[in-house]
């Protein structure tokens, strides 16, 4: 099951809000994010526990989340401690990935991209250890993350390699380390990638925290303590913070709505929910149920939600009809439903609602002073990025 908090609003839907005056300043990460989204969506669609946590904290542990403005990103990040002594690392949270990684020394500007915090130095930590080549973990890693055991450097190392949908890549040494979630709560022998060579258009985050369903993810590695359950709330802007929480929710379900959570036939990484309908201005759109049958992949690493062509076309038509009083701007990038609201003191934006299996309906938020832009559509399948989920 997943649950959605009413008090933590959905920020991204098939239509996207932005402040017109801020677009120029934010256009570079926004456009970069759209290009990355497009590649990532196509990649996901094409594919479509044994760690000790101290002290015992079965009730759960919570970490603040924030919008990645400090790392020049439209994605969401958390700050964790890595190593002994712990050093701060600001990492992207990603429900569509499993293996966590950070950039590590020795790594110069030709092999690593500029990041917010200093590079993690394994030699300065008393608890860092590379995974031995003969270990079962290394053999298992080779199936999904590249070469496994290699001695390209003259010393046998367990190597990982990841290529993301936008062709960004990270390669390095599969390792274990102490991961500090918050003061006094640490995951010992946490398996992660020590990145020594990164290529692509990464933002300035220090690495990535994998929250998918496969064995390599943080969720799976801490399942013995937290039961494989986690929740997160993504804040609507830079002025507020949300949370990433490990552990089962309390028995108090007041204020929450529930819809079934499914695994993906493409593998254990992805979490899937079933969208059953879309409404504009309170009117249900005439979209055949079969359009939604593949399900919606929940992907926190994607900025804009994608829909199948049929569903997107129906939503766009209804939204444009309801906004016919306002001038439509020419398409820009993948955004084809944008309006010039200059000179309008009062703007009426139609409510856009998503309905999920179990009758759960979510109204997409329309912050005051924002105009809406329709997001890029996908050729098949779909993704959704909710503000608050618990698995």
From TrEMBL:
Active site: 94, 299
Residue ranges constituting the Peptidase A1 domain according to the UniProt record: 76-391
Database matches in InterPro entries: Aspartic_peptidase_A1, Aspartic_peptidase_AS, PEPTIDASE_A1, Peptidase_aspartic_dom_sf, TAXi_C, TAXi_N
Organism domain of life: Eukaryota
SUPFAM superfamilies assigned: Acid proteases
Pfam families per record: TAXi_C, TAXi_N
GO molecular-function terms, A-Z: aspartic-type endopeptidase activity
GO biological process: proteolysis
Recorded family membership: Belongs to the peptidase A1 family.
Protein's recorded name: Protein ASPARTIC PROTEASE IN GUARD CELL 2-like
